[in-house]
Amino acid sequence: DAGITQSPRHKVTETGTPVTLRCHQTENHRYMYWYRQDPGHGLRLIHYSYGVKDTDKGEVSDGYSVSRSKTEDFLLTLESATSSQTSVYFCAISERTGDSGYNEQFFGPGTRLTVL
Amino acid sequence: DQQVKQNSPSLSVQEGRISILNCDYTNSMFDYFLWYKKYPAEGPTFLISISSIKDKNEDGRFTVFLNKSAKHLSLHIVPSQPGDSAVYFCAASDNYGQNFVFGPGTRLSVLP
After folding, report:
1. What's the angle, vertex CA A42, arms to CA A39 and CA A45, rounded to 5?
2. What does DSSP assign to residue A79?
3. Which one of A5, A41, A107, B77 is separated from A88 by 20 to 30 angstroms, measured CA to CA?
């Protein structure tokens, strides 16, 4: 199994509070991703990173920010949590396999976030 | 508008029989496809992949078929086992696998 951990695994918070989720990897993979999983939508990309301090927006980035100051850590921040951000959040990692192409994404165990 | 569709939210199959999970996509630029399996309270795990230069890829009991003209792929599991009961996600990429778009998933139940 790829070495990916997420913390916390569960969190309940109130509307308007800031929340930070952490993804930590021991694989030294360059690419890291944050997804949210909601019923009927599958996994939707929030933000991704292609290197330290290099990040870009995904499909559902509004209300979220990210930071990557070290290869192994990718942080997802909800500046002011809303009930619509109640979801399960997954971190994933991947690496390039050559001039083009990447290996499959390996996923962490997920963080269940409830915003009341 | 979903670019990757899995029109069957659920599927039930008898143990030992074939399971066929379907996935349709709308973006003709997708060139790399993956299937993931997900158990409750766990992250998705990679199952099998196929690139657009192939129309079939096999790995043990799992085979993925790609029909580019129909923008359709399918995952065949033969024979199905109770441990295959999970949610299966189809994912597609148009940049060789850097980023993926996921379908909504199909819940497979394999009945003993």
Report:
1. 125
2. S
3. B77
